Amino acid sequence: xxxxxxxxxxxxxxxxxxxxxxxxxxxxxxxxxxxxxxxxxxxxxxxxxxxxxxxxxxxxxxxxxxxxxxxxxxxxxxxxxxxxxxxxxxxxxxxxxxxxxxxxxxxxxxxxxxxxxxxxxxxxxxxxxxxxxxxxxxxxxxxxxxxxxxxxxxxxxxxxxxxxxxxxxxxxxxxxxxxxxxxxxxxxxxxxxxxxxxxxxxxxxxxxxxxxxxxxxxxxxxxxxxxxxxxxxxxxxxxxxxxxxxxxxxxxxxxxxxxxxxxxxxxxxxxxxxxxxxxxxxxxxxxxxxxxxxxxxxxxxxxxxxxxxxxxxxxxxxxxxxxxxxxxxxxxxxxxxxxxxxxxxxxxxxxxxxxxxxxxxxxxxxxxxxxxxxxxxxxxxxxxxxxxxxxxxxxxxx
Length: 398
Ligand SMILES: Cc1cc2nc3c(=O)[nH]c(=O)nc-3n(C[C@H](O)[C@H](O)[C@H](O)COP(=O)(O)O)c2cc1C
Prior knowledge:
Helix content is 34%, strand content 15%. The chain has 398 residues and is α/β, with parallel strands linked by helices. The chain starts with 17 loop residues before the first helix and ends with a helix.
């Protein structure tokens, strides 16, 4: 768009490594993206024995022990979040809450487990409900919030929390309302139930207001009801002595007035931060710069719905939103997510004001994507002349 500032780093071609070729082979051997998606926790567990694993090395001469460490502090004195590295696995990557500590093996500094709902869900019956859009390094999915239910997930998170912390992994839990409930009081009770469970066991809670894949209206489009939801969960939080961070995850296709109204609610209810964004509705793909033409997208749901898009085409929107919202709400913590597949993008987003990033789709296109992004972050840091991210972003020197 004319007049818009240039985004420093959008597309890139990284040289295919031996690991990338192995990933292509795995994709041919296991052609179902959903089957591969289910194996991610196993892959993370066995990663120490997997060949062609990149080993991000702290550049020679950088004296800091943990150059990529970030501490997210909140203006309301909620417990700070300590991240060994500011790359978090986005919600959806570990819906079941299994093998949490293993995600440190593949380069993550945190995991947003879930999304979990009060009632366990199989998700959408349609198959396939995940498609790869290789030309765009993107994914189209309509999983439909499949998950074993908050009771199961919260129990698993609780039992693995210590092991995850030992690997210095931050653990968040993403929750959403069980889709399909009609009565407003019942809906509210449902979210509150999941919120309490998640709050008890995780370091931060991410309220998913934006799932496009259940056939029901997203909560971030129902402002009056959202007002009640945010008020209720923050009321509960204030009644519990331990103050943990609460994030809201938004949709990427909100109109300006709708976004404005949402930001007002977030401010009014003292939500600590925003996760920007969920998948982009496939029905609106013409708003993204993509090689895949809108009419080439096939349905991923029985009713013909095109589900949500993730991966590289989302990055421009993510970057602009971080810039815009950080300007409007400088005190809110922002976690950027959508199309982040290179360390230079992480670097630019952190400098733009994001506290951390999340990613998921890049794992399907880059062998050990998070570890490689760490290596690229080191390179960016070295070029900047700083020894740590804290020195670069907070002015703290060693
Ligand atoms: C297969 C799949 C499942 C997902 N499931 C969830 C989910 O349960 N909850 C959620 O908040 N986001 C979910 N997402 C969205 C991601 O968390 C993320 O917001 C989106 O994929 C954009 O990031 P990316 O481009 O790095 O993948 C899912 C994404 C994919 C591809």
